[in-house]
Amino acid sequence: MSRGDSGFIRPGYDGLEVPDAPTDVSASGGDESASVSFTAPSDEGGSAITGYGAVAINSNETVATGTASSSPVTVSGLTNGTSYTFKVWAINAYGPSGYSGASGSVTPVLARGLFAGGYTTVSPYTTNAISYVAIDTTGNATDFGDLTTISTNGSACSSSTRGVFNISANPSAINTMEYVTIAATGNALDFGDLTPQSQGTAGGCSNQTRGLFAGAYSDSATWNVISYITIATTGNSSDFGDLTIGRGYIAALTNTTRAVFGGGSYVSGSATYINVLDYVTIASAGNATDFGDMTQAISQHTACSNSTRGLFAGGTTGGLQSNVISYITTASTGNATDFGDLSAAKRSLASCSSSTRGVFGGGYVANVINVIDYITIATTGNSSDFGDLLQGQTSLMSCSNAHGGLS
Hints:
about 400 residues; mainly beta
């Protein structure tokens, strides 16, 4: 079912009986590969469609091809760090369709997740260490470098090249941010300040351009503030808008256009756990809008996503730790749905993701742990063992160069 270079069509081609071209082509990058999604044509031509092909295009030249029986098509043999667009065709017994329109630009990367800071079991019981994992494999974490400042209960956001950490407590509230280049290793550098205040226990999330930090818990008070930064530059944060309800210990996730904030807790005489989901459009500033409800009122949980589905995992509710993983379809609104279970009920964990996999690291069970779990985002089910962090860490930060806000 191949189509030759320069659009060559095989003998036997009948242009009146071939299918229409696929539509709505999009792609997400992997390690030296891309997953190309599309909508099949409604007009299949003179016979049923037997398959699809996708081409990777760089500098107006086709550099790689993949085939499949349905969407998505995986195109391999690409170069990490190089930008590509993709076109798709359909084929039946009479020949291939014309090419679809091109996808947006996609850059394949080795999906890397970072874990940083938090409380440990070793004196002085806090850490500034950063470690990394290759998300789409399994194995133990590797040393990356150090934050310049110890951070607990911080949060993070990232583009495909840079991770930014909200250094929220050391152990008292501070408002600094630091950044690293994810594909490299080394110590963090100063990014700027969160203004007008520290945003401890905030939810951090991002698309390729803009990072958001939402909510805060400080000195027995909660905030509804959402702040934003431009990830590729350095500088202080700016005001974005407000959450529908102020809370801390919130979890956040994105697709390329939308950020969703889930759960958290606020103080009104005593800690109150909530199940609120709200969202904003990342490119525009403004207040959050109701999205739906979590499966339970939860705090000290974590979140990650691919381009279509967001996951929430772990946490604590009413003093009881949770092993629940739930999911939402990020582009729509509605209540969360059960996905499966973590390896143990745990709180204050962190997570990162690629286009296919979510990874959950550290946290607190009966004490601080170094366990890393993973799941396949497109399916449902319980988590599997991934490996171990360099040390037990809880109330830590995490980010990746391949999460759902980037493709």
